[in-house]
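@channel anyone free to eyeball this complex?
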Amino acid sequence: MPEVYETRRARLRERCNASGSASALISRPANVRYLTGGAPHGAVLLLGRTEDLLVYGATLDTPADEPRADGGLRVHALPSPGGDPAVAAADLAAAQGAESLAVEEHHLTVGRHRAIGSVAPGLRLADVGGAVEQLRVIKDQEEISCLRIGAEIADQALGELLESILVGRTERHLALELERRLVDHGADGPALRTSVGTGPHSGRRGHRPTDRRVEEGDFLSVCLGATYRGYRCEIGRTFVIGTSPADWQIELYDLVFASQRAGREALVPGAAYRDVDHAARQVLDSAGYTEGLPESTGHGVGLEIDEEPQLAPAAMGKLDACVPVTVEPGVHLPGRGGVRIDDTLVVRPEADGGPELLTITTKELLAL
Amino acid sequence: MPEVYETRRARLRERCNASGSASALISRPANVRYLTGGAPHGAVLLLGRTEDLLVYGATLDTPADEPRADGGLRVHALPSPGGDPAVAAADLAAAQGAESLAVEEHHLTVGRHRAIGSVAPGLRLADVGGAVEQLRVIKDQEEISCLRIGAEIADQALGELLESILVGRTERHLALELERRLVDHGADGPALRTSVGTGPHSGRRGHRPTDRRVEEGDFLSVCLGATYRGYRCEIGRTFVIGTSPADWQIELYDLVFASQRAGREALVPGAAYRDVDHAARQVLDSAGYTEGLPESTGHGVGLEIDEEPQLAPAAMGKLDACVPVTVEPGVHLPGRGGVRIDDTLVVRPEADGGPELLTITTKELLAL
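replying in thread with the prediction:
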């Protein structure tokens, strides 16, 4: 569907025109992919005055996913290796007669920006800011269906792991096993560094798997995700190992579960990002967990695993329908471990049944 | 050995002083690690006028590898989340009375550079260039022994794969299997995206594994590497599947082998980078493979899998002893496949026996 990308570029062009730049240079990889449907490593997009160009260095090693030139997008491969596509694109913009070029100052390095300035000294460089990131927030049906399939794959991989014997295996091995299963079920690859935390490591966000082995009585926290056609989602669950959880484990689990549910229920179109965060956070706060809480309750997902919006205390903005986000509160007690529960959901109007849960693995406290 | 990091910082300080900046801000992760021994995600190093500071955002999610403060390095965790450690470090530099601050313009984005300029308007911002990358080129004994262990791990993982049945398995599965074995043998993780190419995909540098299955008569190219204590090495081999290679396969293999040997033999202290490239390249050239050759014959390895020096036609500079590099020529025939042979070696004087081969898996053409 090349027209999808053309439409996206047209929307970006409107924004650029509104802020006074007829041309824009997009270099951030996820943004280039969003606007072109896929491009070789290092490719940049010139949203030009007269035509749009996908510019990249022609190398033997250009990955197999060939750029799909569509209506209005021409592909320009640099003849010699080693050149910077961003610099070449600026040169082409100048050749098209552009007077100003909006670049992604949050992505371009100072060095590349300077090189662009030297090659096209007549071009006034402006900042396109997070314009493409903003366009990416609301997803279309196709994007959501990629996320839905990714979530299904992650659910399957996790479900299979739960049927296997866990005691005695290391965090590292469980993480590798999960990643293998993701690929088995059709993922492009993991959406994030798979996190497996046992015992005192459980409940830590982003915990890197170690050689610690699963023991009876442990909490076991797992966070994984699948990438499907470039779209990334995530799921996190916490289990208890052995037949009967301790009282403190049940209490802590129930608390985090209540917090996560409050966060999920706050996902309605029009809700302020910070209010979703507050809904989940105040459950933990009021139980006395005021310190050591994560910075945010969740975040957007899409072509990147952590993108706009941020569901955090200081975040500005309001949710729209068709925005996929995670809701992932957690509590970690140093030395003891903790609980983290993480879902990917799509915001939907109440009339449509409220938030659509993509990751459907049970959130009961399973004793494995 | 905190004194190692102190010595490295002292060498960088000399360079900065020589170019007129008493203070430097190092933000590129591998450079920060090189100068401090390890730091949380996003940490920056301020090489200060009065003291050195490792600055990072204090978050719950700070990874487990704690920064090791050593003599002369103080750790400064930002109290609130969301701040940019680079901006905070510039502020601290100004507070130390610095007049100018050298930053890594090839790493800092324009946006962060601007933010630094606003928070410390009195500070003259200079460019430290690739100073730390240059320091990293020659490795010490400790670094080389990490690479040696990594190479041993990669050899083991590859050796085990060769003992298993390959026909009928997909590139994707073989790649995952290799990565699991790397971790089994003690790697921190893969050093690069493991590449497995069969049949028409064989011999392509950086080929991303697909669902193509290994068939009788295929060439099978594999490139993998282990990260050990942060240090990354790689090995690449090509095999033939079935009992007897075809004549074209033997010829092509012998040619690439001769090219790779010529490259390895050119690794002597004092040799120009481009001459090493030329040595390997001219073997392929003179056999008529002038087009479609890779841009470079090899590259340095260390804390990054692709670092200085580049062994390429236009590269400037000469090899020193104790520089680890890859030698990895290859030929890929579109539609038919090809051969790639890749070793990691350390440059050594002839008196010490010449280049030290770290990846010792046989380079005979194995029929599997």
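from a first look: Chain B is about 35% helix and 20% strand.
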